[in-house]
Amino acid sequence: MDSKFGTRWFLLILFQLASYGLIAIMGQTTQNINILFVNEVDNNLANVAVEVALNYVKKNPQLGLSVDMMYVEGNRTDSKDLLQALCSKYGQSLNDNRPPHLLLDTTLTGVSSETVKSFSLALGIPTVSASFGQDGDLRQWRDLTPTKRGYLLQVMPPADMIPQVIWSIIIYMNITNAAILYDNTFVMDHKYKALLQNIPTRHVITSIADDRDRASQIEKLRNLDINNFFVLGSLASIKQVLESAKNEYFERNFAWHVITQEQKDLTCNVENATIMFLRPMSDSSSKDRLGSIRTTYNLKQEPQITGFFYFDLTLRALIAIKNILQSGSWPSNMKYITCEDYDGTNTPNHTIDLKTAFIEVTEPTTFGPFEIPKGGKIPFNGNTYMKFDMDINAVSIRGGASVNTRSLGTWEASLNAPINVANEAEIKNLTADVVYRVYTVVQAPFIMRDPTAPKGFKGYCIDLLNKIAVIVEFDYEIREVEDGKFGNMNENGEWNGIVRKLIDKQADIGLGSMSVMAERETVIDFTVPYYDLVGISIMMQLPSTPSSLFKFLTVLETNVWLCILAAYFFTSFLMWIFDRYSPYSYQNNREKYKNDDEKREFNIKECLWFCMTSLTPQGGGEAPKNLSGRLVAATWWLFGFIIIASYTANLAAFLTVSRLDTPVESLDDLSKQYKILYAPLNGSSAMTYFQRMADIEAKFYEIWKEMSLNDSLTAVERSKLAVWDYPVSDKYTKMWQAMLEAGLPNSLEEAVQRIRNSTSASGFAFLGDATDIRYQVLTNCDLQMVGEEFSRKPYAIAVQQGSPLKDQFNNAILMLLNRRELEKLKEQWWKNDDVQNKCEKPDDQSDGISIQNIGGVFIVIFVGIGMACITLLFEFWYYKYRNNSKVIDVVESSEHQQGGTVVKNVRPAGRLIKQDSLKDPTKGQNYQNLRTRTLMPNLSKFQPRF
User: Fold this and answer.
1) Which of 369, 371, 694, 894 has the least C-beta neighbours within 10 A?
2) Which residues does the annotation list for site: Crucial to convey clamshell closure to channel opening (predicted)?
3) What is the DSSP letter of 839?
4) Is residue 769 marked as binding?
């Protein structure tokens, strides 16, 4: 036991002696380093950390460092005094032949930081800075040459990295509005633009007000429709802000996120609140070293993360300078100039690679390792920082005491790292519930009542709003506006409908088929259009079009068809007569044409067939041999060509003309007639359009009349105004007067009913939005849309003037457009709607001939096929049982020679059919033309051969 005890004491003494340098290490040398330390007022933690670092160097001689420090302090507003102090200290060090190897800069921001950056850049002093700012925020070091980037280094402090967690939280939770409050432990001057850049989140960044104005500050932020609060500061500042807020600001539609650099617990005197609490955590691998530095060197000041950052940064910078000096990389002929010698162009051109030496330092860190960009693409300055994790907790406070703390996840310090969520359900409960008030007007298919729907409504706009709600993440309650109007302004400048609700802040969103109008945009805001340009169109009753399967026969009148039929039979009869009595026909001159391939006897059957087939593209076939018959055939061909050409040319035109034409096909047609009444919906955008156009015509007429009656005009000028017609048409003036006389319907249902009740003697046409009319036509087979659209305007969602919802909804609608979601909605509500009627397609000028008008042709085909079948049966019967058939017995004989004697055998061979006694015209006598066929006993198996 004694020997073991003595050994342990001996090893402990050896370790202490080694730590204090009492045991010399072979080859170990001490490097003297001169540093110029610049700090700003109130940054006492940097002073303490640097002193601890120098003390650490002294107590660890194995580091081989001996540091001589010169100290300068300035403030953020007085650059002149700071520059004088810097020049004085620097000049004194040069006079003492102890020029600084390193300028250690712990100024945070403002004038003091800019002064130090300008000083080090101008005189070429190697510098390691811990100032706030990302890439591009350090204006004096923004355009450094590659050589200067090697020895002018900046490392971002933790207080500059912690605000980036706000960006990660907002992205993850899709927060649309935020108020960011901070105290003097954070610097947010350079964060105003960069923190939430290119994020659709309406936000305010401001410092925490003093005790007297803190409550009113929170109240003003709430009046800006902000319900997400982020508080950056010490635990004391956070406690003051939370206690200054009203109790109602901790309800479910508010969210509080408090972020601090300290590692203590959150406490505040709040009745009932659940708050997201974020604080830094040290690296688990460095906890032993951190505890040793805290206890041995008494570095216990809060916030610890900042103190240890300054400690590690100072130690790493000193070791980097030592390595450069010991490696011989430090220039032997280092050039120094004083502030008085600097003329703006004579900056020393140093080649010190401090950046590489800083990166290669292997000394372990205390709180967390340094994150240094690899490669040369990402700049060192503005992208180098100390890595650490932020612990994310949900703290429940009841009655002024913390009753529960639940871990939600962590966030690793980075410029754009997402949060690592461990409890997704819990973190979602910490979001502020957003419920918007929506007012609408029922108009199918955009908005339709549906008691079974979750919100009591359905339609295109409801589906659109639900998709936007998924992207923007909000809830809504929807109501129908009392007067059923989108919004119109009267003569006194007062608005009604949805516009009135938005002006009075009673509604957050105006939803429906609401047109974007210039007068509306003066009092409210519109999002980007969610629907194509929609104009005004005309809706009328659809006239019924009679149809007939044999309409193609009505191309010619009945007496014409009878004449054609009579000409057919008469021509066929003439051809038969001419062929029978002409000496040059085939049947009367057979010997002459016996070697001719074309031998056609024009009996009455052949004549009828010839005349019929001559009217078809197939042709009539072989023509008569005699000249008289050919003249008859040629005459029939000419007649048939004219008849067929006339019929073909007029068939399609006749079917088109036979369709009932709409009496009105455009707005001009409507304005020029008086038989059909017409009117738009009362209070609609169409009514406003016609009313405004009539007013403009009246004003322009008054201007013209005033000009023409001006006595100061010369005769030439007056003659130019003396036109036959007015220079401004009174088209819309007359139309508006006609609309007022006809009476404006108060609802779309009333307008549809008036159209259906109208007659041919007194019709009614409705003028309204093309989308409404198109849907009515799709769902009602007795209505039609007439003419082209005019006065086209887009549909958009209305919001309060200056509302942040405009930008949020714009982004959401554009996303839906890119994903073609809006096209799918149009397909659903205008083409695949269940309530649409499957109407019979009306004839159109561009359509082909319908089956209802040409179907008789197919009936003719079937009738012809039926007659052919009947004829075939008749041919079978006639061939089998004709009266002039004769049957005789025939025998077959055979003979053979048997012993020199001829033997004849006779046996029955069948029966011979004798037919067709014909007269031979060449011999002038009768002859028998016999065709024989062996008849089998079983007549049912008889198969004729032709």
Assistant:
1) 894
2) 664
3) P
4) yes
